[in-house]
Amino acid sequence: MKQKVPISTIMTQDVVKLNISDNLTKAESLFKKHHIRHIPVVSGNKIIGMLSYTDLLRISFADAVDDDEDEIDTTVYNMFTVEQVMAKKLVTIAPQTTIKEAAEILASKEFHALPVCEGNLLVGIVTTTDLIKYLIDQY
Predict the structure, then answer these.
(1) DSSP H helical segments within the chain, as ranges?
(2) Residue 119 CB neighbours (<10 A)
(3) Structural domain harbouring 52
(4) Which CATH number does the domain housing residue 98 bear?
(5) In this predicted structure, what is the pLDDT of residue 64?
(6) Residue 126: inside a domain, yes or no?
(7) How many other C-beta atoms lie within 10 A of the C-beta of residue 90?
(8) What's the chain's Rg over C-alpha atoms?
(9) Cα first-last separation, the chain
(10) 42 lies in a domain?
(11) How many independent structural domains does the chain possess?
């Protein structure tokens, strides 16, 4: 297996983002439209949080809605803001962080995505799925 490969080689660069002023209905729509499980929350270009699909499931019955269904019951979503539901204590990594280092962080924490930042500027995201795909490609 290759050593010292930077995370920038496998991270998603075209990141789906939420603005802090967006609502949870939009978040639900983005999760389903893009088939993703994590969305960084930004204020301008600065990352300030991370929203996961699991966060939405905790406050709603979203798992009862058919994945192919376009219509979403937004009653519960209107009771909360993105800021109230998102994770605020973020662990971020730099583009030059190695894949091994990123894997070690994800293996030791209870989350499954890492925002990749240059300073406070979001430049990508890497997930456990990205790491598994990379590992599969090595064989």
Answers:
(1) 24-34, 53-59, 82-85, 99-108, 128-137
(2) 11
(3) 7-137
(4) 3.10.580.10
(5) 52
(6) yes
(7) 16
(8) 16
(9) 9
(10) yes
(11) 1
Distances (CA, A) of 92 to 3, 10, 69, 116, 127: 21, 15, 33, 6, 12
Query: Residue 139: what pLDDT?
Result: 85
**pLDDT score recorded for residue 1:** 58
pLDDT, tens digit, 9 for 90 and up, residues 76-125? 788 899 999 999 999 999 999 999 999 999 999 888 999 999 988 899 99
Cα distances (angstroms) measured from residue 126 to each of 24, 59, 103? 22, 25, 10
Pairwise CA distance, residues 8 & 35, whole Å: 21
* 1 belongs to a structural domain: no
CB atoms < 10 A from the CB of 13, how many? 10
Over residues 52-66, the pLDDT tens digits come to: 999 998 887 644 555
Q: Is residue 91 part of a domain?
A: yes
DSSP 103-114: HHHHHHSS-SEE
Q: How many residues does the chain have?
A: 139
- Name the pTM for this structure: 0.85
Kindly state the tokens that stand for 79. 């009771």
CA distance 39 to 53: 8
